[in-house]
């Protein structure tokens, strides 16, 4: 699968538009559902979880992002509040650029705007593929659909080069499968060469 990396803007260019570096402690909230988007965010170290909760309080994880990846960008082009939360899974460092400065940056650097449009279109494509996969009765198809979607945010092209940062329980929650089914299917997928497991970590 050929991937387009999650849009990364050069750190020096961000700095030229008055971006600031923020450090977040584990579990610290970066923004919450209902907040108005005020910044472009880009991760330099750590891991950020994007999630929300249903009316019963059950967590739904949309993605877990890492170094050089951005998050929340689509909302910067809309007059809408965040429909999700972002928090640090572990101590993380994030560059954030005020929304007005971000808009000026892409106006004055049109290639970045084009690259960002390509990236957002790429994400949407793989999200649609994932949604189709979730309708399958085949557990492997559901898991592969999810893994393809997660990998679409990275620039990993090689087989078994992308680490799945989610736990088995989180994979189960996202695919609507029992955790026992996930564990059994993951082992089967490893034996068939779809994934590689090292120190209990899944590589796709």
TrEMBL record:
Question: What's the protein name?
Answer: Nitrogen-responsive regulatory protein
Q: Where is the Cyclic nucleotide-binding domain?
A: 22-112
Reading the lineage from the top rank, the first entry is Bacteria
Keywords of this protein's UniProt record, alphabetized? DNA-binding, Transcription, Transcription regulation
Q: Name one GO cellular component term.
A: cytosol
Q: Does the keyword Chloroplast apply?
A: no
Instruction: State one molecular function term (GO).
Output: DNA binding
Name the PROSITE patterns on file: CNMP_BINDING_3 (PS50042), HTH_CRP_2 (PS51063)
Q: Which InterPro entries match?
A: cNMP-bd_dom, cNMP-bd_dom_sf, Env_Response_Regulators, HTH_CRP, RmlC-like_jellyroll, WH_DNA-bd_sf
Positions of the HTH crp-type domain: 137-204
User: Which species is the source of this protein?
Assistant: Chryseobacterium taihuense
Q: Which SUPFAM superfamilies match?
A: cAMP-binding domain-like, Winged helix' DNA-binding domain
Signal sequence region: none
